[in-house]
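Sharing a chain and its predicted structure for anyone who wants a worked example. Both blocks are below, sequence first, tokens second.
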Amino acid sequence: MRYHMILSDLHTHTKLSIDGSETVDAMCRAALAQGLSAIAITDHWDAFPPGMKDPGYAPHFMDSRDFWLLHEAELFPAIEEARERYGDRLRIVYGVELGQPQLFPEEARAFLAAHDFDFVLTSQHLNGEGKDYYLLNYDELDPVALMHECFAQELELVKSGMADAVGHIDQPVRLMKNLDFDLSLEAYRDEIAALFEEMIRWNIPLECNTHGLRNWYGRISPPEWTLPLYRDLGGHLVTLGSDAHKAEDVGAGIREAAMIAQANGLQPISYFVRHEPVIL
């Protein structure tokens, strides 16, 4: 089935993410330049187990939760200003990328209750020991075991019930460039199927993340073979996200991902309003 093409980028980061650098205005202007109909601003907030802190990233070296608290007063006014400026041409969604909420659900739920988000994109950024995937030593770990652990954590994340969509379900793959590892993830079919079944049970759509299309592994996340599996299990909606942390990446790969989704019988979501998907 072919659907009408409405292009939306529902995974972007501004300078109000600890690893971002752009203003909300710059990201919105980039979205318009790419011919998008909607953009979601999904800056980072990562939950950590009790007693554990995010080691932070340069140049801030702060816990992402502390960084959010320091800057959150800027975010919604910036979105409102952008809506006033571009709202007749671009739907601007107030969202968040909520990292591993299942590891500290009380804090994560309190955070969500305190904010009027339209869209909660969840993701898994940590291994089972609470260490960020980007900070692991990949020369000393077993990538097969790491992916088993990743999908187990993703399953628990979905069961937490806090997601409007689940982002980049195979996140560690980004860091495996120099490893002898099968990037197709065919070996994890059963775990991926179990994850999809749980997502469908919760009516949570899958994200097609385009980060890989502009990076070394050259594919969407998750790999395309998983999309007919998702469809056959009962899934029919997906979100499309560039995971852009700079304006030049807004919308990157979105048209290609939309075509891939449609070719596999899946409907891209246009945007969210109060956690409900809207399809145009």
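Comments welcome. Residues 8-278 form a domain with the TIM Barrel fold (CATH 3.20.20.140).
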